[in-house]
Write a structure and sequence with these properties.
It is built from eight helices and five strands; from the N terminus they run αααααββαβαβαβ. It is elongated. Strands 1-2-5-3-4 form a five-stranded mixed sheet. The chain has 274 residues and is α+β, with helices and mostly antiparallel strands. It has helices at residues 2-43, 46-51, 53-70, 78-122, 128-141, 172-184, 202-222, 247-253; strands spanning 143-146, 150-156, 190-195, 230-234, 255-260. Strand 1 and strand 2 (150-156) form a beta hairpin.
């Protein structure tokens, strides 16, 4: 009878160990799955490999050790431990990659600003009077007269990447003319208005329209225009100039408008935000 009891006790213990082993194996598999996905993302990212090669190597070594341990029975939670280490090394490497990209973008923006500042200095003409007359003609050529709002200059969608607010280099020539015009007309102020088409989320469009207008304003201020002379407003998909039924119409609606004050600095015809 004692022998039968021992056999039943042994069978029960084996069942408990088997269940525990299966649960642990499942946890190991899940940990390895996540670690593999994280490692694959950094291993195939050239930016991450350049910015954090040691962390990528450590992630791969920890993952390899976790996979080896997972192949043995009775290793407990060791595979999970090394899988966790691998995933953390991957995350650290990815963060270093993001930091490097952000630094590269900042450096590019600083270089673009320096180029604009140099171009602004180089573009000065011998006679301020001649320059003022020439610039006024150039500004008038780029604007249209709106009886309700005064003089308006339109910057088209081609000066921004899709869904982005940063001005492209193609805008430099127009921005330089605008800066010089405002420097030679110190009483004038401008209101910069951003617009989008009606594609996508309305809240996102409103935010993008304001950010694009702000990008133009920031560039003017960086190039020497006093901040108090620049107002910013975003309208999203309100006030379209064309129907949004075609790509041509939508492209016309994706714009930034610069509204000029009169010579005394009075701005009129501000639109209501709906």
């Amino acid at each position: 009878m004692n022998g039968g009891l021992m056999r039943r006790s042994g069978g029960l213990l084996f069942s408990v160990l088997l269940v525990a082993g299966c649960a642990n194996q499942k946890a190991n598999d899940e940990a390895l799955l996540h670690a593999n996905a994280s490692y694959a993302a950094v291993r195939d990212d050239s930016n991450v490999l350049r910015s954090a090669p040691k962390d990528v190597v450590r992630a791969g070594e920890s993952l390899a050790r976790a996979e080896r341990l997972a192949g043995y029975w009775g290793t407990g939670s060791d595979p999970q431990h090394y899988a966790y280490l691998s995933q953390r090394y991957s995350e650290i490497a990815q963060e270093h990659g993001h930091q490097m990209l952000n630094q590269q973008r900042l450096t590019k923006l600083q270089l673009d600003l320096q180029r604009l500042q140099l171009a602004l200095r180089d573009s000065k003409l011998e006679s301020v009077q001649q320059q003022g007359k020439w610039l006024e003609e150039q500004i008038l050529a780029l604007t249209s007269v709106d009886t309700d709002r005064g003089l308006v200059m339109t910057l088209g969608d081609v000066l921004f990447d899709t869904g982005e607010a940063q001005l492209k280099p193609q805008a430099n020539r127009t921005i330089l003319k605008l800066v010089q015009f405002l420097q030679l007309n110190p009483k004038r102020v401008v209101r910069i208005e951003g617009y989008t088409d009606n594609t996508g989320d309305r809240a996102f469009n409103l935010k993008l329209s304001r950010e694009r207008a702000q990008s133009v304003a920031d560039t003017l201020v960086d190039l020497g225009v006093e901040e108090r002379r620049v107002q910013v407003q975003g309208y999203g998909d309100q006030y379209p100039v064309e129907a949004n039924a075609s790509e041509r119409g939508r492209a016309q609606n994706r714009r930034v408008e610069i509204v000029f004050s009169d010579r005394a600095g009075v701005l009129t015809g501000q639109r209501e935000a709906q």
